[in-house]
Amino acid sequence: MHIVERGRGDPLIVIPGLQGRWEYVRPTVDALAESFHVITFSLGDEPTARWTLEPGRGMDSFADQVEAALDSRGIRQAAICGVSFGGLVALRFAARDPARAPALIMASTPGPGWHLKPRHELYARAPKLMGPLFFAESPWRLRKELLAALPRLGARLNFARMSLRTAIEAPLSVSRMASRARLVASHNRAEDAASVACPTLVVHGEPGLDHVVDARGTLDYVQLIRTARSVELRRTGHLGSLVNPREFAALVRGFLASISRGSSDNAA
Asked: Which parts of the chain are beta strand (E)?
């Protein structure tokens, strides 16, 4: 498996979102790498991942990839951070392998009741035909968030240039994205959440700015995971960890530091 590593410190697994390629969370990875030994990878159904995904295993096949990444580096346990779809992979791994996941971070993750909108179901059924329409509407879905998160025109232009470079460097597969979206709807997220016992941080944007998943649905995990706490990234929607990666990294750093302090107090 092709693994990307950045930084030094305590290990932190970062799992990318529906796009599948790790390059789409590069700003998040770089910000976190200032404090942690970040380990990331493209999702296993991406050819660049160099990993054999077992589709019949559903979300477990992606969780298997997290396990393999830890094993390949001789790491017994690490905090697990998932962005959007990656949050569901992180959730599944933490529920399935609690001894290896001492902490869980879920950022802008589809909630336990999330489902595809009717037009997106149409896109998912015929991704190659309808994919261009999906990508064409994306700027409009994100426009309000980008105006709030990046009020300066120069900042928005820089973000657009970065996004374009990433799209050229790491082309997207609408078919694979559609397959992942269908998997979300079929997976029992509430059951996984009820099984998680490790400290969990649920990061979400403002409800009025997240037009990809419902931020209020993301917050439902706080009710299902008894050890969870939540934090809102102000003036962001779905892209908080990307448009404001340093603030996101600071939240993760503070969360993990609080767990470490708690462990030290208990030991004393």
From this structure: 4-6, 11-15, 37-40, 79-83, 104-107, 200-204, 228-232
